[in-house]
Amino acid sequence: xxxxxxxxxxxxxxxxxxxxxxxxxxxxxxxxxxxxxxxxxxxxxxxxxxxxxxxxxxxxxxxxxxxxxxxxxxxxxxxxxxxxxxxxxxxxxxxxxxxxxxxxxxxxxxxxxxxxxxxxxxxxxxxxxxxxxxxxxx
Length: 138
What we know:
Layout lengths: L2 H24 L7 H18 L6 H11 L1 H24 L9 H9 L18 H4 L5
Helix pairs in contact: 1-2, 2-3, 4-5
């Protein structure tokens, strides 16, 4: 790598580090889905690899530390987020038509992952003649 390319690349990558922290901060009040996590890792991987063996100022060291520990950071963040959301919405989740969701269902509702399936108990019709009386089935 020539010296000019090195400094151009360094300048380009260095200018993207604030974007990384801005994205992390913008997601502070929500759940980090696996899709978001993978996108962050993929987007900033080349910056991490470039600075891994090069000069590091304070901002670069901060980026390197957070990026290298991003999965643990997100896991901790999501755990705290879910605990707070569970406290905030406990009354709602404990009274859905007089029924309460179990902990696994609550976590599925609050985590906001892309593909969630929340299975709830079916209820029995009080009037079993409903379908016979309905115009749809006659």
